[in-house]
Specification:
Number of strands: 17
CATH topology of the largest domain: TIM Barrel
CATH class of the largest domain: Alpha Beta
Bound molecules: zinc ion
Number of helices: 15
Helix content: 25-40%
Distance between the termini: 50 Å
Largest sheet: 9 strands, parallel
Structural class: alpha/beta
Oligomer: single chain
CATH superfamily of the largest domain: Metal-dependent hydrolases
Number of domains: 2
CATH architecture of the largest domain: Alpha-Beta Barrel
């Protein structure tokens, strides 16, 4: 089906891609044409038309790192650094069931769609196929999988490899032909995985043509642990094992020195930058300016609801810029344009999905967010970008389209009865839990 969206302030996600009196032509799941309404070619008779009343339209936001399956336990531990926090959570996370994962994923997907996030890279430990099934059912795009870990290095829980591989291959079979679902193979981290397991997971990813996801250099103690065990730093350790290439997605990368930044840039790997999670867990501040100066693809991530606790990429844009500036005393450390690019096209590049998503261009998937923004002096490209990064939030999201389909509009998710979902979760869990 072909339709025209007109009277919109377009932000295509490309440099200088602001079109105040724009139009979009959608054909099925894709964008057929984009540009100023005055230049729009005549459309065939019967083409549906909608007037968006001058609203701002941006590419769907991309969350490059999350753990949706843990969302039921939001707020269960809000203090401590990464390792203190993980130890405090262990009694809860070690016993998460596949059903917990499923309901938690649904909560996370509902929140992300409401917040204008149309694509996420999600991580779990068990049930690699669950997130993609839940997300695509609610109309969201995902790159999902499970992060392997070595039982000898992880105190709690059962081993999950090669189970994660089997689950992923099964999910790929079950979800083949579902354009909203992509999969990866991943390993939790250099400190939770032996070198042999890391290499085995990467080999399997290469064999099946999948991205490889890992947490890397998140916390200073991680660096000390890896130096103690392997005589080198986390990124160099992965480099020596041959794990870094353009199909690798590295979450965090807070603790990197200059030489590691060069190794990272030469490898082509992408980085998921999680500024709020890194600050909350006292991990530090990733050297994003230095990464971007070396043309490392950097996207924004929320991390899971246990370490953030929201799934809000608007908040990550603003906080990421403020954090970089406040700590470097450099007012240009990150610009609004940098933040918006990281939330859209660069995030897509990190996920290896930029041929299909991340910007509003003819031929790409029609993943877009309609926002209610205004300005006392009227909207201009500068004011729109300024508001998108320093002012906007989920409260401004009016409508969300994924693959050309409206999945959220006027406060309501269209593919799921959210009230029924929440009531069911409440019945299942709250009656069994102490108040
Ligand atoms: Zn993570």
């Amino acid at each position: 089906m072909r339709s025209v969206l007109r009277n919109l302030f377009l932000c295509t996600g490309l440099p200088d891609g602001f079109i105040p009196d724009g139009a979009l032509v959608l054909e099925g799941s894709r964008i057929a044409w984009v540009g100023p309404v005055a230049a729009m070619p005549e459309q065939p008779e019967g083409t549906a038309e909608r007037d968006l009343g001058g609203r701002v339209v941006i590419p769907g936001l991309i969350n490059t790192h999350a753990h949706g399956g843990m969302s039921l336990h939001r707020g269960c531990c809000d203090e401590g650094d990464l390792f203190q926090w993980a130890a405090a959570l262990a009694p809860t996370t070690a016993h998460l069931t596949l059903e917990d994962n499923r309901w938690g994923s649904a909560i996370a997907v509902a929140e992300m769609l409401r917040n204008g996030v149309t694509t996420v890279c999600d991580c779990t430990r068990f049930g690699a196929g669950i997130f993609g099934e839940v997300a695509s059912g609610m109309g969201m795009r995902s790159l999902s999988g499970a992060l392997a870990n070595s039982p000898s290095l992880r105190s709690a829980g059962r081993p999950n490899w090669p189970l994660a591989l089997e689950e992923t291959l099964e999910a790929m079979r079950a979800q083949s032909g579902n354009g909203l679902c992509r999969h990866y193979l991943g390993a939790h981290s250099p400190y939770n995985c032996t070198p042999e397991l890391l290499r085995e997971v990467k080999d399997a990813a290469e064999r099946h043509g999948l991205p490889f996801v890992i947490h890397l250099a998140e916390n200073r103690r991680e660096t000390e642990m890896i130096i103690e065990r392997h005589g080198t730093t986390p990124l160099r350790h992965l480099h020596r094992l041959g794990l870094l290439d353009r199909n690798s997605i590295l979450a965090h990368c807070v603790w990197l020195d200059e030489e590691e930044l060069d190794l990272l840039a030469a490898s082509g790997a992408g980085v998921a930058h999680n500024p709020i999670s890194n600050a909350k867990l006292a991990s530090g501040i990733a050297p994003v300016k230095a990464m971007r100066a070396r043309r490392v693809p950097v996207g924004l991530g929320t991390d899971g609801m246990l370490s953030n606790n929201a799934q809000d990429i608007f908040a990550e844009m603003k906080f990421g810029v403020l954090l970089a500036r406040a700590t470097s005393l450099d007012g240009y450390a990150l610009t609004a344009a940098d933040a918006f690019a990281m939330a859209t096209i660069e995030g897509a590049r990190v996920l290896g999905w930029d041929d299909e998503i991340g910007s509003l261009e003819a031929g790409k998937q029609a993943d877009l967010v309609v926002l209610d923004l205004d300005h006392p002096l009227g909207l201009t490209p500068h004011r729109v970008l300024s508001d998108l990064v320093f002012r906007a939030g989920p409260q401004h999201v009016r409508e969300v389209l994924v693959a050309g389909e409206t999945v959220f509009v006027d406060g309501r998710l269209l593919r799921v009865d959210e009230a029924a979902l929440r009531a069911r979760i409440s019945r299942l869990y709250c009656e069994a839990l102490p108040a």
